[in-house]
Amino acid sequence: MALVKDNILLQSVRGTLGGEITIYERNGQIIMAKKRGRSNKKPTPKQQEARYKMMVAAAYAKQMLKDPVLKDYYKSKAGPGQNAYNMAVKDAYNSPEIQHIQFEDTTVVVKAKDEFRVAAVEVRVLDSAGTILERGAAILGRNGVDWYYKAASLPAGGKLIAVAVDLPGNETVREIHLE
């Protein structure tokens, strides 16, 4: 790859020359690179999964950028050489992370993070037989990371399930057995 500077011949040239060299512009710089060809190898299952995930993320990004508020949000997260579309694809590609769940009496504190924003956290309390006793939305704390849910009770032998959801709808589920 080569960066072209102050060359009058290549100032307005874009595309592939002779099937060997590709010339394109990114961030105001003209770049010359060897033309890439298709691979002759069959994609692995992981590659196929990644391609599918990227296709879904790209479709999400196109839909999300129709909303001017979300477009502005993603644009504000973009760095040099990035745009709102890049950020929306990145957000859709990665799921949120539930880092920690702790208890303060009957209050459940879920620490959930995402590179962009966790949109919601839902908490479900189940008894030992697996029946849902209660479920509800957690409330975001002042620090922007901890989500609080006031449970009516936390039965011994039961389970607590926390579900974190980001803007694209990616979910992360974490389950804890209550003692």
Low-confidence runs: none
Cα end-to-end separation: 59 Å
Going across the major beta sheet, what is the strand order?
Answer: 1-4-3-2
Structural class: alpha+beta
Overall mean confidence score, pLDDT: 88
Number of helices: 3
Proportion of beta-strand residues: 35-45%
Query: What is the H/E order?
Result: EEEEHHHEEEEEEEE
Query: What form results from the Cα inertia axes?
Result: elongated
Rg to the nearest angstrom?
24 Å
- The overall strand count is 12
- Classify the helix fraction into a percent range: 10-25%
- Major sheet description: 4 strands, antiparallel
Task: Describe this structure as you would to a colleague.
It is elongated and about 75 Å long. The longest helix is centred in the N-terminal third of the chain and has 20 residues. The mean pLDDT is 88. It has 179 residues and is an alpha+beta fold. Helix 1 crosses helix 3 and helix 2 packs across helix 3. The protein has a 4-stranded antiparallel sheet, with no helix packed on it. It has a 4-stranded antiparallel sheet with strand order 5-6-10-9, with no helix packed on it. Helix content is 22%, strand content 39%. The protein starts with a strand and ends with a strand. It has 3 helices and 12 strands, in the order ββββαααββββββββ.
